[in-house]
Write a structure and sequence with these properties.
About 45% of the residues lie in helices and about 15% in strands. It is of the alpha+beta class. The longest helix is centred in the middle third of the chain and has 106 residues. The chain starts with a helix and ends with a strand.
């Protein structure tokens, strides 16, 4: 509560002085533009003046400011009394009569003193707001920097991947070209052998055809001589000798093994992007706590209902893990793999 001195100050009668004629009679008006108190007579002159006729002249109780000092409101319950006190319990402006009747046991203060306290609190809030704005600006700036660094790293890694892919393609092309060159060499060798075998066969056909034609025109007296010649000549054309055909080449397709290919290309290493966050919210309730070994690290959790979740483990096994139910019962030891 305020002191007795403050009470006496609050109970003093309210008087205003006209800023134009210094009269204290009928001072019921205030010009918000000129920031002046006006009596009835000066108000009439003020509203007829060429430069002031459009000014905002209001009842002095509705004035917003008097110089740099706020004006107290006129009490709506007790005419002629200003609400120059503030009741903290009721959070409202009151006059001295209101204080004596309804707010005597409440926590109250003079309007000017309360306004000073409010201003100090407001300054503190302004400082807090400015600090928070600066914090989030710094946080935003840092996030922009991290994002740019991240993108730059992605671009660099992408170039490395493409470079490695080009090298691997070049090696594959080199191996494929070597196989194709070997096929061309085999084809050329077979072509030469084929040509040589055809020429030999055609020569034998030609020579044997001539012998056959000669045998057909040989007379009886020369048969014995020709027969003797054939015994020496025919063995040279052995048809029982088997011709060895060239072995047909075959291409055994290799299997695509991604493991060595991945090792040759390279592997992307990156840390887990998700961090543990402490949640302080009355709407969030921890159902259960559990730990797993490194070998059985959980890589996926899918809620089933309010008390159970499906968990995927590193060894590709999944199971149903239960936590506290709605009634707080501890079921965290229940685990049923399927």
């Amino acid at each position: 509560m305020a002191s007795n001195r403050s009470v006496r100050r609050a109970q003093e009668p309210v008087t205003y002085t006209c800023d134009l004629c210094d009269s204290e009679d009928g001072v019921r008006w205030y010009c918000n533009d000129c920031r002046e108190n006006l009596c009835d007579r000066c108000k009439e002159i003020h509203t007829r003046g060429r430069k002031t006729k459009n000014d905002d002249v209001v009842s002095i109780g509705k004035a917003t400011r008097q110089g740099d000092k706020p004006l107290s409101e006129v009490c709506k319950l007790h005419l002629g009394k200003l609400c120059d006190m503030f009741c903290s319990d009721c959070n409202e402006l009151i006059c001295s009569i209101c204080l004596s009747k309804n707010h005597k046991q409440h926590n109250w203060n003079l309007f000017e003193d309360e306004l000073f306290v409010k201003k100090e609190h407001f300054k503190e809030h302004m400082t807090t707001l400015a600090d928070k704005i600066a914090h989030f600006k710094n946080e935003t700036s840092e996030r922009h920097r991290v994002n740019k660094t991240f993108k730059d790293n992605i671009d660099t890694t992408r170039k490395e991947v493409n470079s490695q892919r080009t090298k691997l393609k070049a090696e594959v092309d080199y191996i494929a070209e070597a196989v194709l060159a070997e096929l061309s060499s085999l084809e050329k060798e077979e072509s030469l052998l084929y040509k040589k075998d055809i020429q030999r066969s055609e020569k034998n056909i030609e020579e044997l055809t001539r012998l056959l034609e000669k045998a057909e025109v040989t007379d009886t007296s020369s048969v014995s001589i020709f027969e003797t010649s054939l015994r020496k000549t025919l063995p040279l054309y052995d048809v029982k000798m088997k011709h060895i055909s060239p072995k047909q080449p075959s291409f055994v397709t290799g299997s695509i093994n991604r493991v060595p290919l991945t090792k040759m290309l390279g592997k992307l290493h990156h840390e887990n992007q998700y961090e543990k966050t402490d949640i302080n919210n009355k709407h969030v309730q921890r159902l259960s706590e559990f730990t797993v070994s490194q070998q059985n690290r959980i890589f996926g959790i899918c809620p089933v209902d309010d008390s159970q979740v499906w968990c995927g483990h590193r060894d590709s096994k999944t199971g149903l893990l239960s936590g506290h139910d709605h009634h707080g019962r501890d079921n965290r030891h229940t685990y049923e793999p399927f």
